[in-house]
Write a structure and sequence with these properties.
alpha/beta; Rossmann fold; 12 strands; 23% strand
Length: 336
Amino acid sequence: MTSQTRVYFATNRRKTGTGYGAKIVQNDPNQIAFAVATVAGIDLTKENSGAIASIDSLSFGNFTPAVTDQIINGGKNLLIFVHGFANAFQDAIKRAAFNREWFAASGEAHADTTVVSFTWPSKGEVFAAPPHIPTADYQADQTRAGQSGFHLGHFLKVVDGLAKKFRQAKPAGRVFLLSHSMGNYALQAGVQGLFGMGGVAAPIFDEAILAAADERWDSLLQPNGGRLSNLPKLAKRITAYYSERDVAMILAMALNFLLRIGFDGPKEKTDTALYPKAKFRFVEVTDVEDYDLFNPPDATHQYYRRSALVRADIVSLLAGNPAIPGGIVKLSSQIV
């Protein structure tokens, strides 16, 4: 059990009571909240354990200088996390904390990270057990994810500044992006927002990990900087995990009438001219079965953390394992 986990976060959710809700703030950097949440009582053997014990160091537009110093000089690699749909504010912060602790539990030093999360205004009521098809909830979340482009773009600009200072303080340090589910729909809006602000001079991330990406499959191939086409400028390498068993991706395709990266990988995924092996890694996990596929109902959408095999693969990415092959990889369902 982990007693406390610190989650550095930014959000474009409007304040509501003691937390943040599902309404979005205006396109103004001074309305984007930056703060530190302390999550207490996380037990990796208990899915719903943990709660936000406190939120402090609130500022707007950027982290405070003291918090920035904590992130940069914490001695750990940086994990930037963007959550998916069906995450109310507390769930999103807990998920960031869980991910940090899951990866740290691997024992790999590079995977023991400082987590910095962006939480966009998901209502937290998207997924329900069949036969209910939550069309209105899904579409409302998708709309808010798409409307988060300015805010997430600004956040990425802040992260760019953090990454530069971090690498000055720790030249061998690594910076990662992990975006799950509909977080990738928000991410494409954020990437466009960032490049609308001028983009970046050099890649921010050593690895960008797109897990079960609920984003159109041709996103990386869009012309004129559309959608995720500029993501390769932000990351030294991009790894995308996908599964044809993913129940959420099946629902997403039905509602969007278009294939998703998280279902069958990116469009033209076998074309190494479009996707050089040194730059792209697409990993099929359809056959991975080392977790309960049916409990809870969306288990196949959460393989990036439920499967020990997939988690181990991600940890290898965080470690910069040179033996990890590029191009299309299909993980075995057996852990070796």
